[in-house]
Specification:
Layout (H helix, E strand, L loop, with lengths): L1 H5 L14 H10 L2 E5 L2 H9 L2 E6 L4 H4 L6 E5 L17 H8 L3 H12 L1
Parallel strand pairs: 1-2, 2-3
Length: about 120
């Protein structure tokens, strides 16, 4: 559904975003929306003013999420489970499980809402 909505053809026009950060930034700036996990792509989108859906599992989106008003955050980690802290020994099973609770249809609904 996402490929269809984007107008891209499956397995075409896809490149390694980390190979060329300048090209990546230009593409993100020209995009209507970026869907990103807890990574640099969400931060680049925020920096250039592109709407972003941030998908977070074990980490705290409140502390490490994209800093923009143009964001939607999806996080299923229950509040009673402490978030992973960068530099900690490892992610607990409970923290890791929170990411698998996010469903594709949930992301798609937000994409549809934003792009309408």
């Amino acid at each position: 559904k996402l490929i269809e909505k984007s107008g891209l053809k499956e397995n075409e026009g896809i490149f390694n975003f980390l190979e060329d950060i300048n090209k990546t930034t230009v593409i993100i700036k020209k995009s209507s929306l970026v869907i990103s996990n807890d990574s640099i792509m969400g931060h680049i989108a925020a920096a250039v003013g592109t709407k972003v859906i941030g998908i977070f599992g074990p980490t705290s989106w409140e502390n490490t999420g994209p800093f923009t008003d143009k964001k939607e955050i999806i996080c299923k980690r229950p509040r009673e489970i402490e978030p992973y802290r960068h530099g900690s020994k490892g992610i607990t099973a409970e923290q890791a499980a929170s990411l698998s609770k996010i469903e594709v249809n949930e992301v798609y609904k937000i994409v549809d809402k934003i792009l309408k």
